[in-house]
Structures are given as structure tokens and as C-alpha cells.
Design goal:
It contains 13 helices and twelve strands. By secondary structure, the protein is of the alpha/beta class. Bound molecules: pyridoxal-5'-phosphate.
Length: 400
């Protein structure tokens, strides 16, 4: 009898975490490595948020809380959804978890039966398919390739829907492409869903605030209010407030699903950290002005990286509207040979070559389901980005 569960053989460890770990190890071993793999802002959590956490400790808010979030945080989340997304919600329609990742995981665990299908546009965030598989469901992919601006076409979504379809996972702005759907594009997607009343939408809005050039963010339940009764609108403080380590994510959904998620959470982790919840209240209710400053910095870095990558021989990099990633195509590098005689067969080889030859850590596109590409996170200093892109240009020029 095997000791490890069969379900584990269906999934793989997160490739993005693997790249970050590898870059860290090489650095520790003395190599000059620039890591462009991490999916987190390089800014520090703002001081007023840290102060709120300290005040919560002083007040003794160090005990268990309600399993799926304190009343204060649920109220702050309701206010956020009303203010920013025009969604009128009750606290009973809100769940809080240990990161958006846990809310997503619990929702899939709470709803999937063997054979249930979940539509995932690709490229996708690495965790979506594996979480679906772990929960016993079957991922069904819809292509969102570079020539479509990395966005799924409504007709392709419609063609992928079957009687077994339970969810569409929708992620805008996207990890890894940074592509973001405008209001009309969201409406085209919700239009399809309105014709299929058994399909729910899980809208992962975690990059909502990281949008550039005046892009207007919209979420499906806002664009099509009738869809709210089968939507899980997922968000969190990790990316917008530089709070990845605090682990607070949240979701809005019909009460029945919120209760099911709480049931899973009550028998696994119980409440997210009480201190982090107090910090998240301040993040959502406190001043928001710094977000604009951060977005200006991110937009400048994005422009720098896009421009430098497009000057690298064999790379083609569109300009994304949001998140802090670019997802260049490296199709023209496939079939070339490195200076030490290795043939580049796929984007994994490209990523390996960039790391070995120039000490630049990127994540290969196969990890996100769309090849041949690689993902760069530009949530790092302008100096490092300039140096990394110079090295990438040099590495590309050295291929024959
Ligand atoms: C698309 C997407 N969704 C959700 C998450 C989860 O974020 P967290 O669990 O930190 O809230 C991430 C983090 O990388 C992400 O990229």
C-alpha cells in the first residue's frame, strides 16, 4: 500500500515558488542572480497598516476569531465592494481566508465532484489547474494566445461549456500575461454565462488595483448583476497593499457557498491570523493614495521592460494593461544554439539558459500552460530590471 495519497500524484509543486527558491539558493551560493520570478510587490507594507497590527496586539486581539473573518473585517470588505465595485453585499456573503489562495482552494473543495469541469483560460496562474485536480475536478482549457491579446474569445468559452461545467475561472488582470479585460470584454464573457445558467464564475480580482494608462477595472458580478447569484468574487490585500506575508484574502458569494467554504475552513485552518485581519481592516478602510504612486512606478518599470525586451533578438513582448508581469514570446529562439552548443528546444531551455548564462531567473511558459513564452515579474527595482534586461539582450544576441 502506497503511503502517499493518490491525489498527490495528480499535482506538482508550484513552479513559480521553485524558480524563486532556485534563484535564492544560487544567490546564497555566491552567484550573481537577479530573480524575476517572484509574484509579490517589492514595496514595504505601508506604516499605517503595520501600526494597526501593532495596536491589535496591544489590545490583546490575539485569540481565535470567527472562522471566516471578524465582523470588523467583513464590514470593511462590504464597504470596499460597494465603493470600488458597486456591489451591495451583506457580511453573510463574505468569507475571509489565509490568502486568496485559501479562499479559492476551499471554494473548489466545497463544490467539485469527480468529473466536474472547470474552464480555465490559458495562460493561467499555476495553481488553478492543480487545485481543480486536487479537489477531484477536471480542468478544461480555453486558449487565450498572444495574437488575441492573451484574452479568451467569448465563442471559445461557449464552445468549451458542457453539461459537466461547474465553474469558469476568470482572472483579470492576469497572472502571467498582465492582460486585462475592459468592461465590454467582460460583458461579452458574462453574456455567454447568462446563456448557461448552471455555470458559476470565480472571478479572481487580486490584481484589480494594479492597472495602468487609465484602464478601468470591471468584475463580472458588477457588469452583469444577475450573475451575482452564481459568482465568487475573489480578492485580497496581498498584491495591492504589499501584504503577501500577512496572508489575507477574501471573497463575496451567495450565502450557501460562503457557508460551505466556512465548513471546509472550520475543519482545516480555522480563522486567518487575528493580527493580519486587523491590519487588513486598516488596509481597506485607511488612506488609499499610495496606490496611485505605486502604480506610476509599476507602469514606468513595465514600459522599461517591454521596450528592452522588444529590442532583444528573437523576443516579442506586448504591453499589458495590468498586474506586474510581462509574458514575452520566445518562439524565435526555439531551434537556436547556445554558445556552449546546446540546442534550445522549448521555453524551459530558454529559462535554463538565461539562468545559467546570465544569472537571470524567469519562469518558463510551460508552467502557465502556454508555450513558448516566459514570465518576468517587474516587481523589483529599476536598476535590477535594467541590468536583467541588458543581460537577456546579451544572451539572445549570443544564440546562433
Ligand atoms: C492570480 C492570483 N490569484 C491569487 C493569488 C493568491 O494570492 P494570496 O494567496 O497571496 O492572496 C495569486 C498570488 O500569486 C495570484 O497571482
Amino acid at each position: 500500500m502506497a503511503f502517499l495519497a493518490d491525489s498527490l500524484s495528480r499535482i506538482k509543486p508550484s513552479p513559480t515558488i521553485a524558480v524563486t527558491t532556485k534563484a535564492r539558493e544560487l544567490k546564497a551560493a555566491g552567484r550573481d542572480v537577479i530573480g524575476l520570478g517572484a509574484g509579490e510587490p517589492d514595496f514595504d507594507t505601508p506604516d499605517h497598516i503595520k501600526a494597526a497590527a501593532q495596536a491589535a496586539i496591544e489590545r490583546g486581539e490575539t485569540k481565535y476569531t470567527a472562522v471566516d473573518g471578524t465582523p470588523e473585517l467583513k464590514a470593511a470588505i462590504c464597504a470596499k465592494f460597494e465603493r470600488e465595485n458597486g456591489l451591495a453585499l451583506e457580511p453573510s456573503q463574505i468569507t475571509v481566508g489565509t490568502g486568496g489562495k485559501q479562499v479559492l482552494y476551499n471554494a473548489l473543495m466545497a463544490t467539485l465532484n469527480p468529473g466536474d469541469e472547470v474552464i480555465i483560460p490559458r495562460p493561467y496562474w499555476v495553481s488553478y489547474p492543480d487545485m481543480v485536480l486536487l479537489a477531484g475536478g477536471s480542468p478544461v482549457f480555453v486558449d487565450a494566445s498572444i495574437d488575441r491579446g492573451f484574452k479568451m474569445r467569448p465563442e471559445d468559452l461557449e464552445a468549451a461549456i458542457t453539461p459537466r461545467t461547474k465553474w469558469l475561472i476568470f482572472n483579470s488582470p492576469s497572472n502571467p500575461s498582465g492582460a486585462a479585460y475592459g468592461r465590454d470584454e467582460v460583458a461579452a464573457i458574462t453574456g455567454v454565462l447568462m446563456r448557461h445558467p448552471n455555470v458559476w464564475v470565480l472571478s479572481d480580482d487580486i490584481y484589480e488595483h494594479l492597472v495602468y494608462d487609465g484602464f478601468g477595472f470591471s468584475t463580472p458580478a458588477q457588469v452583469e448583476p444577475a450573475l451575482a447569484e452564481r459568482s465568487l468574487t475573489l480578492n485580497g490585500v496581498s498584491k495591492a497593499y504589499a501584504m503577501t506575508g500577512w496572508r489575507i484574502g477574501y471573497g463575496a458569494a451567495p450565502v450557501e457557498l460562503i457557508k460551505a467554504i466556512a465548513k471546509v475552513q472550520s475543519q482545516s485552518t480555522s480563522n486567518p491570523s487575528s493580527i493580519s485581519q486587523a491590519a487588513a481592516v486598516e488596509a481597506l478602510n485607511g488612506p488609499q493614495g499610495f496606490l496611485l504612486d505605486w502604480c506610476m512606478v509599476f507602469a514606468e518599470r513595465r514600459n522599461l521592460v517591454v521596450s528592452m525586451l522588444n529590442q532583444a533578438a528573437g523576443l516579442a513582448c506586448p504591453t499589458p494593461a495590468g498586474a506586474f508581469y510581462v509574458y514575452p514570446s520566445c518562439a524565435e529562439l526555439i531551434g537556436k544554439t547556445t554558445p556552449d552548443g546546446q540546442r534550445i528546444e522549448n521555453d524551459g531551455d530558454v529559462a535554463g539558459y538565461l539562468l545559467e548564462a546570465e544569472g537571470v531567473a524567469v519562469v518558463h511558459g510551460a508552467a502557465f500552460g502556454l508555450e513558448p513564452h516566459f514570465r518576468i515579474s517587474y516587481a523589483t527595482s529599476t536598476e535590477d530590471l535594467t541590468e536583467a534586461c541588458t543581460r537577456i539582450q546579451r544572451a539572445c544576441a549570443a544564440l546562433s
